[in-house]
Amino acid sequence: MGSILLRFAIAAAVLLGAGAAIGSRFGSGFTPDGVPGPVDPYLVAPGTLRPTAPPSPSETAPPATQAAGRPVASPGDKTAAATVPRTGTGRFATASATGPVRGTAGPLHRYKVTVEVGSGQEPLDVAMIIESVLGDPRSWTANGSLRLQLVSGDDDADFTVLLATPATSEAICATGGLKTEGYSSCRLPGRVVLNLARWLTAIPNYGAPLDEYRRYLVNHEVGHQLGRGHEACPGRGRPAPVMQQQTYGLNGCVANAWPYINGKRYSGRAVK
């Protein structure tokens, strides 16, 4: 991907007030991906801002339990366990990180990454993963029609990616009329809300490692932010379009994390 110049400060800034402040902070409105109801989760890539070797295929695990602090198996390692807290503090810390402009032409969309305090995740680590996904040549900048850039909390941003515990993500999504049941993720105007349980455990029977599911998750929900709607599986055995709701099942398709395959936009029939 070329050399990357990043400036990282290890501090985090508090964005949101706790609990009851969530609704007033985020306001109403929801993504053009459909009517109020479940929306999908997020994808992300390896934890670095430079290319990494693809992970080896492995079995996925059962859905994350919603019990606070209960360990759940993590796809890609049947012996590993991820602790997924059900709730956090309701406050978010911003990754103090700036990345290069990704893409060659078109309007620039600047974004920042925030992580709920109490989630057990480091904002900088999460930002590195997300930037790696959106900076990949198979992601949304591939056709030269837009550019993306990670910015720090001190800079203006066009949208924010939030990684939140199941209870907090559900509460935020509900302000836009979206019912996620603490399981899936959503996009509100200017907010891409990633469910921590999906981030840490993916979904059962996805057929690809956790890292690949995260890539799908990021590209899918950021795709909504960029104006893309849902798409259907184009046929059994074919790659799932990234805008298919893969979190709720592949419907005969196989897992795919990218909007561009072999340099061409890959999509399916639009669905409402």
Automatic annotation (TrEMBL):
Lineage: Bacteria, Bacillati, Actinomycetota, Actinomycetes, Micromonosporales
Start-end of Low complexity biased regions: 58-68
Disordered: region residues: 44-105
Name of protein: Lipoprotein
Domain DUF3152: from-to ranges: 82-251
Domain of life: Bacteria
Record's keyword annotation contains Lipoprotein: yes
UniProt keywords, alphabetically: Lipoprotein
UniProt entry tagged with the keyword Membrane: no
Pfam families per the UniProt record, alphabetical: DUF3152
